[in-house]
Specification:
CATH architecture of one domain: Alpha Horseshoe
Helix content: over 70%
Oligomer: single chain
CATH superfamily of one domain: Tetratricopeptide repeat domain
Distance between the termini: 124 Å
Length: 276
């Protein structure tokens, strides 16, 4: 057996070099190899007593250090794994929020573009206002969306179906919300001009629209409101100039091209492409 062979080797060595474990445990001052119920054993058999399972504080220390090291390594691994898991979960949550925000932004842009294009092309149905209403629901603090929604409500209210009190009220609320965010929002100011038109004369209405157009020179809705006013008062050449100006801004907008043909007929102007 290994223990018997170790004892035999120890007896043969005598006072010579002791085995490795005996050298580690041979110091009486640092170790207590004696069992409390046994007489002290010294000299040659001290290391052998350790081999037979005697009590050794150094051995217990080494075992404690090994156990502590293993616990420390396990704890460190758990901490690393836990931190990594938390980082992964946090990153996934952040990516999810960013993705949701990105989808909402794209949806807002799409709804706003559809509502704006519907108004530019002269759609008198409620579809543009509905697109813009949904866009405002996504971003209620967007002054441009609120202002264009107010103008869309006024377009519906002034359509062939006549004015509806609910749409006028909605237009007032949307215009007020837009102007609280941006007092110079052009479409909200246009909606207010239409809301207050019954209290203004033609000159006052023209002045208000021109003020909006001066602040937003490329706003085709202000141009449209102004050329309709000018055409209704017999100032067709001024109206034609505004129509051409609007076409230069939005060449494919149908609502800009229809009045062009009408005004050309009124003024007996032959389009350049038809001249021979």
């Amino acid at each position: 057996m290994p223990i018997i062979r170790e004892l035999t080797a120890t007896l043969k060595l005598g006072r010579g070099a002791a085995p490795a474990h005996q050298q580690e445990c041979g110091d009486r001052d640092d170790h207590d190899h004696s069992d409390p119920k046994r007489p002290a054993i010294g000299g040659l058999f001290r290391g052998s007593w350790c081999l037979l399972g005697g009590h050794c504080r150094r051995r217990r220390c080494r075992r404690g250090r090994r156990l502590g090291g293993r616990l420390s390594r396990r704890l460190s691994r758990r901490l690393v794994i836990g931190a990594s898991a938390a980082a992964v979960v946090g990153g996934a949550a952040g990516a999810g929020l960013w993705s949701m925000h990105f989808r909402e932004e794209r949806r807002f842009d799409d709804l706003f573009r559809r509502g704006e294009q519907g108004l530019e092309y002269g759609d008198l149905s409620t579809a543009p206002a509905e697109y813009l209403r949904r866009a405002v629901a996504i971003r209620p603090n967007d002054a441009a969306a609120q202002g264009l929604l107010a103008f869309a409500f006024m377009v519906n209210a002034d359509s062939v179906n006549g004015k509806f009190a609910s749409e006028v009220d909605d237009a007032q609320q949307a215009a007020s919300a837009s102007l609280r965010i941006d007092p110079n929002e052009p479409n909200a100011r246009l909606a207010l001009v239409e809301l207050q038109r019954s209290t203004l004369d033609l000159a006052g209405t023209e002045d208000r629209i021109r003020q909006v157009l001066a602040a937003a020179p490329r706003n085709i809705f202000a141009m449209r409101q102004l050329w309709n006013l000018l055409q209704s008062t017999g100032r067709s050449r001024e109206a034609l100039a505004l129509v051409r100006r609007a076409i230069a801004v939005k060449p494919l907008a149908a609502a800009n091209n229809f009045p062009l043909a009408q005004l050309l007929c009124e003024l007996h102007v032959t389009p350049p492409g038809d001249r021979r």
